[in-house]
Amino acid sequence: MNHLFLTSGLFTVYDSSWNAAGCFGVAFKSIYVNPNPVIDSITADVPFRCTPSDTVHFTSVVTDSFPTSVIWHFGEPLLGSLDTAYSDSVHIYNNSGQYAPSIKVTDAIGCVSNAVFSNFININPPFAAIKVTVDSGCVPLIVGYSDSVSQNGHPVSIIVDSVKYGDGSPTDTGINITGSHTYDSIGRFMMYHYYHLPGVLGGCSYADSLQVSAGDTPLVANKMHAVSPYPDSTCPQTLVRFY
């Protein structure tokens, strides 16, 4: 007799039979089904990076007092698994992309649990955009600006190294980057932002640009004249000429 236990717990199995003489007998056996190890979570020190060839440190949280084997697979199809026997592991990703690491935990009596963490590691350059209050208008044109940078859909912090406004004014760096610039000259100018990611994200440097158009203020005469029967009034259905 075979039986597949799907849950853990203490179970008592009974078997009864009759013999040819009509005698009845019962046999029983208690068996404890151990729970599989529970993989609560895995963490990576920095799951988002801008360049490959960076080392990622993994840690898993497993609910089991005596795991005897922790096998990591880091989501790269051409690479094998790493049997660490511990919850911690280290891996170097040599190519950009998204990776789904997995972990297999075996305890002292052979119970096994597996878990896959989809798109857990993302190694790609960030997406950046310069946000401005206005990108066109009449001089003097005051343009407020900020940077929005995300990596794989997640906002990331950056360090802005310098801002070049393209109108001949000095390039701002450090504390001189105020988030606002006034264009006093007429023309089309390219604003450039140069920034880099923190070291823990790879430290990569990038640049982004935006065109700003500053135009002249239209000249308007100080006084307008009207030709009508009276200087400042008229009647309905009367044609009035302005100049």
Provide a concise account of the structure shown:
This protein is 0% helix and 53% strand. The chain has no helices and 23 strands.
Give an account of the 3D structure.
The structure is a single chain. With 243 residues, the chain is mainly beta. Helix content is 0%, strand content 53%. The strands form seven sheets. The chain has a five-stranded mixed β-sheet with strand order 14-21-20-17-18, with no helix packed on it. It has a four-stranded antiparallel β-sheet with strand order 7-6-10-11, with no helix packed on it. Strands 13, 15, 16 and 19 form a four-stranded antiparallel β-sheet that branches. The chain is elongated, with a radius of gyration of 36 Å. The relative contact order is 0.13.
CA(first)-CA(last) distance: 108 Å
Oligomeric state:
single chain
Radius of gyration: 36 Å
- How many helices? The count is 0
Strand percentage? over 45%
* Shape category: elongated
Mean pLDDT across every amino acid position = 82
- Spans of at least 5 consecutive residues whose pLDDT stays below 50 are none
Helix % is: under 10%
The chain-level structural class is mainly beta
Annotation, overall tally of beta strands: 23
Order of helices and strands: EEEEEEEEEEEEEEEEEEEEEEE
Main sheet properties = 5 strands, mixed
Strand order of the largest sheet: 14-21-20-17-18
